[in-house]
Amino acid sequence: MTIRARRLLAACGLLGVVVVITGWLLLFQPLHGSASKSTVVLVIPKGSTVGSIGKRLEDAGVISNADLFALRVRFGGDAGKLNAGTYVFNKDASYSEAIDVLTGNTVAKGKAVTIPEGLSRTEISPVVAARGIKGSYLSASKSSPLLNPRAYGAPAGSTLEGFLFPSTYQLQIPPTSTELVKAQVTAFKQQFSTVNLTYAKSKNLTAYDILTIAAMIERETAMASERPLVAAVIWNRLHQHIPLGIDATTRFQYSNWTQPLLQSQLASQSQWNTRNRQGLPPGPIGNPGIESIRAAANPAKSPFLYYVVKPWTCGQHTFSSSQSGFDQAVNAYNAARNGNGGRAPTKCP
After folding, report:
1. Taking the CB of residue 207, how many other CB atoms lie within 10 A of it?
2. Residue 31: closest CA among 42, 17, 18, 21
3. What CATH architecture is 26-103?
4. Residue 247, Cβ neighbours under 10 Å: how many?
5. Using 50, 70 and 90 to split pLDDT, how confident is the model at 29?
């Protein structure tokens, strides 16, 4: 082998080493850390591909390159481990940091808190406190510079009730109520932007009206298949100027979700009492999930005006379009309850 050939071979070997090292640096970013204190909230939808997740992260300034992120994910064998959800990311993070968040490996370093669908601000507050989140949640959720309720049709002075999106959030240490509210509001805006409001607007309903309806749907049924039907009942009763008769609105007024309501409360003329007042209550009675919001905006095409719990089911309802049909369903429920010693005739798995 000639001297020239040896030099060429050595140069090629050196080049190969440089390429390997460069590739390793690009993928694993050993000198790249989350020095930035700026954070961003992102919703990763179910069914997202590695490529679409990388694009969301790059667009939000979390990572520098979506293609290299996807390569890093596949190289590390994490392609099937990235989870859907709502996350708080550091901006300008390394690929491994972003992957750790999406795979749940940072839970020990951060704080995971789950906000169930439908809860009001007063109900969320003790949930937050029990998870060690610092600061008053009720104070933090009164308002946010990230969202103006009036832009959605809410009256002046409205709180963020209805806009605090329920999900599981990964919060930075130390977690605060202000950070959680920021994440919830950001997630709400991202999710609500996917809702088709064309039909609602054609009926002169505002986005705030839809949130108000959605919050009632969330209280009335836990079954996904029933949400559009409950929405239809609410829409039909509004159209026919029939009081909604949803006691959850009175429960919201008195912050009483567990004890029997007093007759004086049920008989009140408060705007929250949908037994005695026509139309919608003044605002949302909780914070609905995306499926209830979509059902509220696009109810089932159905003549139903009534529903009552079906005996010996796990919260399923019987729907009817006439008073006689409703009375029959009520009688069936009462007979089942009497036959069960006065206890609710419920059968859940």
Report:
1. 20
2. 21
3. 2-Layer Sandwich (3.30)
4. 16
5. low
CB atoms within 10 A of CB 344: 10
Q: What is the pTM of this model?
A: 0.76
**For the chain, what are the domain ranges?**
26-103, 198-339
Sign of CA dihedral 94, 97, 98, 100: positive
Give the separation between CA 207 and CA 190, rounded to whole angstroms: 14
Averaged pLDDT for residues 313-335:
94
Please report, for residues 241, 261, 343, the alpha-carbon distance to residue 248 in angstroms, rounded to integers and kept in the order given.
Answer: 19, 10, 21
